[in-house]
Amino acid sequence: MIAVLLMILGCASFFYATHMIVNANPHAKIPTWIGLPPNNPGRAFAFRMAGILLLISGAVFSDGLAWYWIAIFVLILMAPSVVYMALHNRRATRPEPSDPANSSSEQDDALSNTSQSESGHFR
Q: Is residue 28 a part of any domain in this protein?
């Protein structure tokens, strides 16, 4: 019972760290595996480390479970953080909606600037 409680607390701590990072970077994409986001609050690092420590402690204290059940349980608990970050990255990389009144003239200008004439030079 203590092991499951520690793992759930670790998941909550890790999710809160992800929430802090997403709020600190509302328009920037957050690196998924390696790298730091543009704004990285120090408290987020502390909550991530606490979450990892709690997850590992919960895994160590779960004597009665086989190792693969522990791994499955940890993956299930980490899923909300992964999904939250993926949704944020999808929103952050989505282009801004343009004004429909100006979009056709901007597209025509872009096409005329990139089209090649017969001599092979750009106009």
A: yes
Per the structure block, which two tokens stand in for 76? 């299930």
* 86 located within any domain: yes
What's the whole-model pTM score? 0.68
pLDDT of 68 reads 77
Q: In the chain, helix, strand, coil percent, each to 5? A: 70, 0, 30
Q: Per-residue pLDDT tens for 10-28?
A: 999 999 999 999 999 988 8
Give me the number of domains the chain comprises.
1
